[in-house]
Amino acid sequence: MSELNDLYQEIILDHNKNPRNWGKIDLPSNFAEGFNPLCGDKIELYVNYNGDKIQDIKFEGNGCAISKASASVMTTMVKGKTKDEITKIYNEFHQIITEGCNHDHYIDENLEVFCGVKEYPGRVKCAALAWHTLNDILKRIDNNG
Amino acid sequence: MKNDPNCKFDVAKIRSDFPILSQKMNAKPLIYLDSAASTMKPRQVVESISDLYYGYYANIHRGVYLFSQISTEKYENARSVVKKYINAKYDEEIIFTRGATESINLIAHSYGRPNLKEGDEIIVTEMEHHANIVPWQQLCKETGAKLRYIPFDDKGELILEEYDKMVSNKTKIVSIVHISNSLGTINPVKYIFNKAKEVGAVTLLDASQSIQHVKVDVQELNCDFLAFSGHKIYGPTGIGILYGKLHLLEDMPPYQTGGDMIKSVSFERTLFADIPGRFEAGTQNIEGAIGLGAAIEYVSSIGLDEIAQYEHSLLEYANQKIREIPQVTIIGNAKQKASLISFLLEDIHPHDVGTIMDKLGIAVRTGQHCTEPTMKHFGITATTRASFAFYNTIDDINVFIEGIKQVIETFE
User: Fold this and answer.
1) Which of B224-233, B253-262, B310-319 has the lowest mean pLDDT?
2) Stretch B233-240: mean pLDDT
3) Cβ contact B411–A13 (<8 Å)
4) I want to staple B180 with a disulfide (CB 3.0 to 4.6 A). Which of B6, B19, B185, B388 is the partner?
């Protein structure tokens, strides 16, 4: 199964089994749902944004190991970060899952596990679901000033 | 080997007609277990299309020259082949469409709209493909009719007592799936349609998953309408069939209008063509019809009884093997079942199963199979589905079972 190790690495399997920040936030400042109708994946994302940073973030949902691990890793990375900082991380993540990893450049070690996703075009959407849902929230924060 | 069906059925010969089955996928021999989504095409179908384009192609129903006549003859011959295959009475009862989805939409539009009104009811099942739900929902919105669903139990069998209570003189259309694409259940069509006929309702059979596996006789089953797609019976994509009883089709207005479906056109008015032309507007999918005709001739040459028997033996073998894996839960355990297995692997998501299988050269379908309400019944969002056709072998199933074990290993 060596050819699969690039995708189903231990870190992904671990985040899938023990997702970080799993659950709901009572009375979150922001909430969004994300769907992937192709595979029936679903995520509910709860955020507490204090006007400057994401103070707390939690998620629940149904999904494959890739989408769950991606959501789990995302929550650990964006907690305590400002919108600009998050956008930067997102851009890096997006580049990794669509174009792969260029190891000449610095890659955030948390995102390195997603280097293999590009080889599975059918799975890019799974990896991106949580991030797209978070983007929906950030956009709304934008619009509210 | 006692349960080796290869003894009776020459699967090697059949496989030699399907060159794609010798291909590799991800550097592994292709194990194609997704025939319920779409079937592979035998050489005979591909050649019928290349013969058309290389040998005698021209537009149909138009030219006075020889090639146009030959093309028209072959196109119309395909209609007769379909008619014979489903035991319709007349060639005119066979309409070429783009697929089962268009066939059902055509009926909803051209039969449903003019005939249904507020208070009328349409009955479908809870295990329909979205193609046999959404067109009726739209029709109900337009007409004020009500859509009702026959429920099914946890085995995946329809609860007929509920249906019996549901049927009344309000029932105008009963449209049901013959074989469920996500559960494999073979539904008791005859019972359901006989009951529908007692109250004068019109019946429609979605034969998308049955036409390639079991004998479908429209007269015996009391079908007023029947729909299926060519690509699921070893034919090309983009072609499908709508069967309708002559007297029903004759009274129906066109679905699309334009060229080739008219008797005469003036600036003031248009006289529509007789059936089937009335429902075949524009230049038709000539290669699709001819390819579908070739596909049905191919299936008939092997024999549906032989196919059904062989596929059933594959299902039995797969069932027996898969049940030896304790992590497997089968979704859909109807007594009458077609050759597919929908299953869960504990909490491993079907998409992960599918991706790992893909790397092993095994093509299975994962997801909700366009049957979201069916998934909801079981409180799940997706399954992995392996479907078997007459070109699959015991070896295919062995590789598939090993694949499941590798998936479990990966997630251990």
Assistant:
1) B253-262
2) 98
3) yes
4) B185
Q: B53 pLDDT exceeds 50?
A: yes
3-state secondary structure of A67: helix
Tell me the β-bridge partners of B243: B94, B226
Of B26, B381, B410, the CB nearest to A40: B381
DSSP string, B147-181: EEEE-B-TTS-B-HHHHHHH-STTEEEEEEESB-T
Q: What is the DSSP letter of A7?
A: T
Do B107 and B233 belong to one domain?
Answer: yes
Kindly write down the DSSP assignment for every residue of B223-249, as one continuous string.
Answer: -SEEEEEGGGGTS-TT-EEEEE-HHHH
Q: Answer whether B348 sits within 8 Å of A41, measured CB to CB.
A: no
Q: How many CB pairs under 8 A join A and B?
A: 53
Query: Least CB-CB distance to A4: which of B348, B367, B410?
Result: B410
Q: Are residues B228 and B336 in the same domain?
A: no
**How many domains are there within chain B?**
2
Joined together, the tokens standing for residue B347 give 């909490």
Read off the pLDDT of residues B73-122 as tens digits, 9 standing for 90 and up. Answer: 999 999 999 999 999 999 999 999 999 999 999 999 999 999 999 999 99
Q: Please indicate, yes or no, whether residues B263 and B345 belong to a single structural domain of this protein.
A: no
Greatest Cα-to-Cα distance within chain B, rounded to the nearest angstrom: 73
The residue assigned the tokens 């001739």 is B297
Pair of tokens at residue B408: 């479990």
B332 in the same domain as B284: no
Interface test with B, best of A2, A5, A6, A8 (most B CBs within 10 A): A8
Tell me which of B276, B301, B326 is where a domain ends.
B301
Query: What's residue A114's pLDDT?
Result: 92
Contact assignment for A39 to B382 by CB distance below 8 Å:
yes
Of B251, B284, B301, the position where a domain reaches its end is B301
Assess whether B140 carries a catalytic annotation.
no
CA distances from B230 to B53, B101, B214, B239 (A): 19, 12, 15, 5
What is the CATH number that goes with domain A2-143?
Answer: 3.90.1010.10
The reply to whether B287 and B149 lie within a common domain is: yes
Query: Which one has a higher pLDDT value, B286 or B260?
Result: B286
Chain B positions in Cβ-Cβ contact with residue A66 (cut-off 8 Å): 351-352
Q: Could you give the CA distance from residue B198 to residue B164 in angstroms, rounded to a whole number? A: 11
Residues of B in Cβ contact (< 8 Å) with A71: none
Residue A2 has pLDDT above 50, yes or no: no
Nearest to A49 by CA among A8, A78, A7: A78
**Domain residue spans in chain A?**
2-143
Phi and psi at residue B287, in whole multiples of 5°?
-65, -35
